């Protein structure tokens, strides 16, 4: 029997596929649709200390090869999402979940995480260190000193399972430096990658989204090689207790297979979920299982991280 079940920390998931934060996860209705789909879990839209409207529209566009967005962190505030995952947790047969959060300053991030620590929530938290779209706020994880300082402080009070949503890195030295920081902490997972920040898509003579003169995060086909490289770079460098969640450019079972081959324990769907809706989990799960069957793999552990290189 071919199975796509997986684990992250102490959490068991019946399927390794789930949504990527930002897609189909803004409202309780959208989250409920993912909960009822073939997905193994859901992650919420990143929640901030207080509700945010986000950037002016149009702020998302599908393109032939993927998507561009500059949503600007619209959300109902972390408490909305925390209340919902606590509600679900009380129900029999509930899947384990990921609550995505970040503050607009380190102080706000600590405020939110202290509240989650003090709450009844027993699931996973994904700290988003990589939002590319808030004007005037750089992506936190590109600033290694700030990242180190935030994590140092977080782990003085936070004892629940925590992971990080990372931006793509593009240099071997940056993989080394980032991994050296993450390995100092009892992280449960890292999620590679957020959108590739600050791309520009043009139609005729005009940018396709309004915020930031058209600059926005790129997802879809464009980003798969970068995502795979980041998944594999961190799989090679992080201690085994830090699991890897693979996100970026997955629109088929083959794409999910490649993320797992690079070391992913869980695989997230972003642009394709936006384009096809929650039924996509059924299709991609079936495609992934068909590939595993042909190759004689019964579970993810049979091929996770086993990417082959061309040797002399
Ligand atoms: O809301 C957004 O603009 C957004 C976020 Br928080 C993120 O982490 N990644 C992204 O592509 N967009």
UniProtKB/TrEMBL annotation:
<feature type="binding site">
    <location>
        <position position="128"/>
    </location>
    <ligand>
        <name>FMN</name>
    </ligand>
</feature>
<dbReference type="InterPro" id="IPR050074">
    <property type="entry name" value="DHO_dehydrogenase"/>
</dbReference>
<feature type="binding site">
    <location>
        <position position="45"/>
    </location>
    <ligand>
        <name>substrate</name>
    </ligand>
</feature>
<feature type="binding site">
    <location>
        <begin position="69"/>
        <end position="73"/>
    </location>
    <ligand>
        <name>substrate</name>
    </ligand>
</feature>
<feature type="active site" description="Nucleophile">
    <location>
        <position position="131"/>
    </location>
</feature>
<dbReference type="InterPro" id="IPR033886">
    <property type="entry name" value="DHOD_1A"/>
</dbReference>
<dbReference type="InterPro" id="IPR005720">
    <property type="entry name" value="Dihydroorotate_DH_cat"/>
</dbReference>
<protein>
    <recommendedName>
        <fullName>Dihydroorotate dehydrogenase</fullName>
        <ecNumber>1.3.-.-</ecNumber>
    </recommendedName>
</protein>
<dbReference type="GO" id="GO:1990663">
    <property type="term" value="F:dihydroorotate dehydrogenase (fumarate) activity"/>
</dbReference>
<comment type="function">
    <text>Catalyzes the conversion of dihydroorotate to orotate with fumarate as the electron acceptor.</text>
</comment>
<dbReference type="InterPro" id="IPR024920">
    <property type="entry name" value="Dihydroorotate_DH_1"/>
</dbReference>
<keyword id="KW-0560">Oxidoreductase</keyword>
<keyword id="KW-0288">FMN</keyword>
<feature type="binding site">
    <location>
        <position position="128"/>
    </location>
    <ligand>
        <name>substrate</name>
    </ligand>
</feature>
<comment type="pathway">
    <text>Pyrimidine metabolism; UMP biosynthesis via de novo pathway.</text>
</comment>
<feature type="binding site">
    <location>
        <begin position="45"/>
        <end position="46"/>
    </location>
    <ligand>
        <name>FMN</name>
    </ligand>
</feature>
<comment type="subunit">
    <text>Homodimer.</text>
</comment>
<feature type="binding site">
    <location>
        <position position="193"/>
    </location>
    <ligand>
        <name>FMN</name>
    </ligand>
</feature>
<dbReference type="GO" id="GO:0006207">
    <property type="term" value="P:'de novo' pyrimidine nucleobase biosynthetic process"/>
</dbReference>
<feature type="binding site">
    <location>
        <begin position="194"/>
        <end position="195"/>
    </location>
    <ligand>
        <name>substrate</name>
    </ligand>
</feature>
<feature type="binding site">
    <location>
        <position position="165"/>
    </location>
    <ligand>
        <name>FMN</name>
    </ligand>
</feature>
<feature type="binding site">
    <location>
        <begin position="248"/>
        <end position="249"/>
    </location>
    <ligand>
        <name>FMN</name>
    </ligand>
</feature>
<dbReference type="GO" id="GO:0044205">
    <property type="term" value="P:'de novo' UMP biosynthetic process"/>
</dbReference>
<dbReference type="InterPro" id="IPR013785">
    <property type="entry name" value="Aldolase_TIM"/>
</dbReference>
<feature type="binding site">
    <location>
        <begin position="270"/>
        <end position="271"/>
    </location>
    <ligand>
        <name>FMN</name>
    </ligand>
</feature>
<dbReference type="InterPro" id="IPR012135">
    <property type="entry name" value="Dihydroorotate_DH_1_2"/>
</dbReference>
<dbReference type="Pfam" id="PF01180">
    <property type="entry name" value="DHO_dh"/>
</dbReference>
<keyword id="KW-0963">Cytoplasm</keyword>
<feature type="domain" description="Dihydroorotate dehydrogenase catalytic">
    <location>
        <begin position="5"/>
        <end position="292"/>
    </location>
</feature>
<dbReference type="GO" id="GO:0005737">
    <property type="term" value="C:cytoplasm"/>
</dbReference>
<feature type="binding site">
    <location>
        <position position="220"/>
    </location>
    <ligand>
        <name>FMN</name>
    </ligand>
</feature>
<keyword id="KW-0285">Flavoprotein</keyword>
<dbReference type="InterPro" id="IPR001295">
    <property type="entry name" value="Dihydroorotate_DH_CS"/>
</dbReference>
<keyword id="KW-0665">Pyrimidine biosynthesis</keyword>
<comment type="similarity">
    <text>Belongs to the dihydroorotate dehydrogenase family. Type 1 subfamily.</text>
</comment>
């Amino acid at each position: 029997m071919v199975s796509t079940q997986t684990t992250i920390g102490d959490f068991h998931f019946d399927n390794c596929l789930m949504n990527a934060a930002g897609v189909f996860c803004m409202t309780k209705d959208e989250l409920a649709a993912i909960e009822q789909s073939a997905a193994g879990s859901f992650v919420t839209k990143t929640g901030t200390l207080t509700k945010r409207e986000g950037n002016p529209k149009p702020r998302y566009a599908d393109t032939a090869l993927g998507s561009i967005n500059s949503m600007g962190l619209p959300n109902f505030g972390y408490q909305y999402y925390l209340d919902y995952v606590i509600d679900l947790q009380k129900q029999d047969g509930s899947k384990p979940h990921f609550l995505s959060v970040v503050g607009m300053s380190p102080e706000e991030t600590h405020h939110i995480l202290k509240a989650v620590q003090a709450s009844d929530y027993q699931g996973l938290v994904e700290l988003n260190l990589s939002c590319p779209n808030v004007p005037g706020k750089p992506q936190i994880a590109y600033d290694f000193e700030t990242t180190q300082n935030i994590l140092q402080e977080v782990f003085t009070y936070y004892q629940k399972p925590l992971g990080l949503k990372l931006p793509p890195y593009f240099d071997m030295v940056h993989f080394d430096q980032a991994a050296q920081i993450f390995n100092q902490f009892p992280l449960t997972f890292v999620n590679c990658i957020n959108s590739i920040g600050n791309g520009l898509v043009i139609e005729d003579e005009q940018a396709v989204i309004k915020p930031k003169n058209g600059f926005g995060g790129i997802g879809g086909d464009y980003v798969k090689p970068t995502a795979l490289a980041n998944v594999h770079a961190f799989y090679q460098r992080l201690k085994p207790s830090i699991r890897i969640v693979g996100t970026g450019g997955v629109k088929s079972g083959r794409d999910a297979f490649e993320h797992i081959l690079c070391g992913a324990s869980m695989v997230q769907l972003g642009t394709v979920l936006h384009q096809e809706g929650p039924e996509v989990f059924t299709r991609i799960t079936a495609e992934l299982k068909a590939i595993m069957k042909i190759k004689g793999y019964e579970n993810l552990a049979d091929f996770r991280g086993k990417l082959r290189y061309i040797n002399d």
